[in-house]
Design brief:
There is one protein chain. It contains seven helices and ten strands. The strands form two sheets. An eight-stranded mixed β-sheet has the order 1-10-9-3-4-5-6-2. A two-stranded antiparallel sheet has the order 7-8. Strand 5, helix 5 and strand 6 form a beta-alpha-beta unit. Helix 1 packs parallel to helix 6 and helix 2 packs across helix 6.
Length: about 220
């Protein structure tokens, strides 16, 4: 599965289904700290990571923004910065260059203007006070973002529920399982619209009985 197909198929999924796909495969998912939230709701982020580090200084953000390629996602490891590392100008330039979005594990500012850009943009917090432009940090190195390690070129997938990071071959294996999760949920919702109880479509009694008896069991849908 090449990147174009990954992007096409992820565009029809949500992060919840993908996380359930990981769970079904009994694999650990790299979900970014939920404190990092989208500035604008209703947008889906899919792209390859273009990583950078910085601290209380956004000069390296400008360097990375210059070097990033269309379709990439700026992933900013702010190393605990308290001052804003991006504002209105950077997402405007990112959109002009055709970047997929920005993920900032630190503060941003100019949020009203950022919302007008309609560019997927995630940040940990907001602060009107900007950082400095006196130091150059690293770009295109493994970074820590929201408690997970992100390598350059890895897939970043996000929506209103949060962000996931994955290697390309890994997400390619999870996507078909996530698609089946999505189809199953669609069937459940269709049955509920017909008046069928959710509990009727679960092995709830069997599962609870086994749990009480100390036996291994999994809650399953019966449709």
């Amino acid at each position: 599965m090449d990147f174009d197909e990954i992007r096409r198929r992820l565009s029809r999924l949500d992060t919840a289904c993908v996380c359930d796909g990981y769970k079904a495969l009994e694999r650990s998912v790299r979900a970014v700290d939920p404190a990092i939230r989208p500035v604008t709701s209703g947008l889906r982020l899919i792209g390859r990571a273009h990583t950078l580090t910085c601290h209380e200084d956004f000069l390296t953000v400008i360097v990375a923004l210059r070097d990033a390629l269309p379709g990439e996602v700026l992933v900013i490891d702010s190393q605990g910065s308290r001052k804003a590392l991006t504002g209105e100008l950077f997402p405007t330039e990112a959109r002009r260059k055709g970047l997929a979005g920005i993920v900032n594990d630190g503060p941003c500012r100019d949020t009203a203007a950022i919302r007008q850009q309609q560019l997927p943009y995630y940040a940990r917090s907001v602060n009107p006070v900007a950082g400095a432009t006196d130091r150059i940090f690293e770009t295109q190195v493994p970074v820590s973002c929201g408690g997970v390690t992100v390598h350059p070129g890895e897939i970043v997938f996000g929506d209103d529920d949060g962000l996931i990071v994955a290697a390309e071959d890994e997400i390619a294996e999870v996507i078909p399982v996530a698609e089946e999760v999505q189809r199953k949920e669609a069937r459940l919702l269709a049955e509920m619209d017909k008046g069928v109880s959710l509990v009727e479509m679960l092995n709830l009694d069997e599962h609870c009985g086994k749990i009480r008896a100390g036996q291994e069991s999994k809650l399953k849908f019966l449709v």
